[in-house]
Amino acid sequence: MREPAPPPLYQALDGVSWPVLVTAMVQGEHVISYANAAFSAMCGHPIADLVGRDDAVLDGLKTDRSVKADMQAVLTEGRGIRRTIVTTRKDGTPYRTDVSIDPIRDASGRVTHLISIYRPTDVTGDPAATIGEVDTNLPSVAEHLPGYIYRLIMRSDGTIDTVYRSPSLAQMLGIDKTQVMRTFDNLVHPDDHDAVYAAIRKSAAGMSVFREEFRLVASNGTLHWLRSRAMPRRTPNGEIVWDGIAIESSAEERWESEIANQASRDPLTGLLTRAAWLQALESELTAERSESATCAVICSDISAFSALNERLGQIAGDTILRETAKRLAKLAASIGGVAARLGGDEFAIMIPDCADQEFLSLCVGSLREAFAQPMQIGTEWLAVLTCIGATFHQRLETETMADKGIASEVMTQAELALRWAKQSGRNTPMLYSPEQDDRHRNEAVLARSLEHAIANDELELHYQPLVELASGRIVAAEALVRWKHPTLGMQRPDRFIPLAETSGLIVPLGRWVLEQAFRQHRLWTSAGLAPPPVAVNVSGNQLIEPGFVALVEEALESQGANAANFEIELTEGLLVEPSPQIMASLHALRTMGFTIAIDDFGSGHATFRYLRDFPVDKLKIDQIFVRKLVLESTDALIIRAIISLARSMGIALVAEGIETDMQRAFLQQEGCAVGQGYLFSMPLVAEDFTWMLAHNVRLPMRGPVEQAVPGSPTGPDAATGAQLG
Fold this sequence. Notes:
- The protein has 25 helices and 28 strands.
- The protein has 725 residues and is an alpha+beta fold.
- The strands form five sheets. An eight-stranded mixed beta barrel has the order 19-20-22-23-24-25-26-27, surrounded by six helices. Strands 6, 7, 8, 9, 10 and 11 form a six-stranded antiparallel sheet that branches.
């Protein structure tokens, strides 16, 4: 398709939003030969009053002697100047502006004109200029500009065409004039291409000023830095047109720009720094809008990055950060977002025009998929897990540019969502919501209350008997922690135990349980009773603590307890990927004399290999199989298989959750000798369990005898079997 003929050059200059003034050298005077509408709007002089007159009509150039002297240097030395001047408008009001004055030469090298480009704050005006009689040689002016004039069009189908570039571009790049209409992609530096087109599309989307700094590559390889600024306008056929001018930056300006760019860019990843990104977020959220605007923020970080960095080394760690940043930046570019490295292994994307929460969820999903792809680190491929939190903000009509706290609030919401994602421990992205925020705030309050309860001994242990199925004799007890909150009442263990895990309180809570169980066993012995072994639940977070074994030894010594009188119960999930620390802790506990039991066996992923490698003494069949037990059912087959496995490996066995005589009879017939559940007893306070030991009670207690146990409500609703860990 043939490109339209170039528009008259004065029309292109008229469309430039920067004020432009051209003066001609006529008999030693500086005569104004051209001024665009932006210049007229800036100084207050109508264009018709300027063209053809000496530039002395402009008070600033007349009174600022340093500028006048510098202009003489432009003529004698042929160099451009950059100055800040204070001048006055036609009505006498003063104003400050930056001005660049450059010489324009004829074919012989003689300076014939000066072109002045001003950089005030936004000044606009309707093009209505005509060139006076003094000089109508505007093509010569455009040919020798320190930059070039252009017209850019975005078609209705979204394609972008440059339909005009002035001949000065050919002179600057050392190319033939016929080549100035070559594709822009062949002229602009490859590293600047995406940024330029992104700025154009952003300008079109908001009908806002197009601003960009970029590099063009000359035929000899020289780089030319240019700054462009143009206001878009929409034509009747729906196309968007920019008439603009790209001015070459001086070396000093480029150096200042490079310093500013380095300060705003992370040196490792090339992404924006936290400070620069937050400034961009604030600008976006406080910008004037004709209608309510939307914005979204996504925060992410790399799970266990410190451990990766320590294991693989800093060079590999830096490679992980760069690759993560690359994937983040690619997604940001595809959705019109702005990416940043907030610090360490934490990254963020701002999406200025996020349609709705559904679109945000899609973006989060895409980011998660991008992060999930293995990355090559040295000679190996590594899948890195990340946590992602996001928030969606729709600005209310009541929000104004003065609401500087909006950016801080939005950022706080995104970081809260990221924290929730970390706490979930499931690599699941979290989206901020006020309801979720309330829940987590309530949990934070509850966590502080739990910390206070642990420190002030406000918890208590209950003991559930384990009985010999054939005789009903109590052969062991499981210690279960209970918490009666002073205002909220009894808190379910399945609520506060996970809370202890996520808040880091599981270690002090576990220590409290151990000390209380050891102390109670000593009290029973001191009272002349023969207490059975007591089982204490231990979580994975406790076992991976380097000081856990020493903590257990201290608790045993402080309470005068013997490890042989206790069992350590752990969940089967720990067997999936047993860490060296967990294995070392279990071996040390077993050496001390503890029995090691696996709780809830059958519901997870344990295998024969893990049972072989673990120092396991006892298996506890998960109560889900026992409670659903129907003869000849799948659950019955699973129970038979577990009993056979334990017998063949010489491992003791306990069935949990026994509630009926039928379940008891089946388990006893299949070879399971010990069980626990509500058929025999609910978890009991220490005083009630003491009574049972003192009276050598056989369970289940039947008829009137049952009422002899103080405060002994029975049945599944009397208490919950949830436990520590």
